[in-house]
Amino acid sequence: MPERPTLRLLDYKNTLVMLIATALILGGVFYLVPMRATWAALRGLPWGISAAAMVVSLVFNVGLYADRWRRTLSYIGIRLSLADALRIHLATGPLRLLFPIQTGELITAAVAAKKADAPVAVVAGAIAYNKYLTLLATLLMLGIAAAMHPGAVGPLGAAVGLAGLAAFLAVGTLNFQKVREGLARLLAKLPFLTTRLPLDFFLPFDRLSRPERARLLAYSFVFQCSEIISCALIFHALKIPLSFWDLVAVVQVIVLVSNLPITIAGVGTREGAALVLLGTLTTNENAVAAGVAFSFFEYLWPMLVGLIWLPGLIRRPRSNSGGGPD
What pTM does this model have? Predict the structure, then answer.
């Protein structure tokens, strides 16, 4: 039997490039706005606000997020308990820091696939499909904010929104079977892939019914609302004046910018976007502090919590249904 194709999960050269890019972008932000002044602004955050943002992040960025891709797997016939999904999502959080944002989920997919005895490509496809729906929810919320308050988006928001829309439409072509099959044949020409691997990855586009997609999209909207809640707490504490629709638009633009796969966990791009979008409404120090707080509460904090579960993931013995090592 031929050896099953595998994905190279960690490219150290790519990780080094991302670390350098992150340092350069973050360094540029702190060159414009001194780190000491930013830290002084962050120290003004009340502990109650910080605790509330941490709780919101754990409930939605860990609980809801893990349940969403676990439910996607269940829709295509792969069973994984919520407890296992939560443990895997938490434990792989620190490892995802080694990857550009949006690609670290390959680690999560590999561990979840082993636990569920499923192909890695199928699990990775389920997680990626939820990213696709999150992009749709983000664009829809940005569009609603622009419609309700035309001045809320601004030039940067319009440019980022159009780029996001182009990406969404490009990925959306995978809803057509002929596109999936043609792309699978094209990718199969690569030396480390077969036709089966990309087809496994595209499985959610093929298997999910419309009601199931609608339920997963609802998850995405709730997830986006949690980020708005976190930012509302942060902006209020830093006394950044924003109307509701301005808040919705700013959060969506920051999310879209930070999703560019050019830095580790979106660090640097998030702070830079906050400086551009909020710098006219408050001091530059407060604007960057808002970006730093957003990065910490929404992304870095859940990964730090995951350090508790990481040793168990590394040391856990391998097992299969027959009771022996696999």
Answer: 0.87
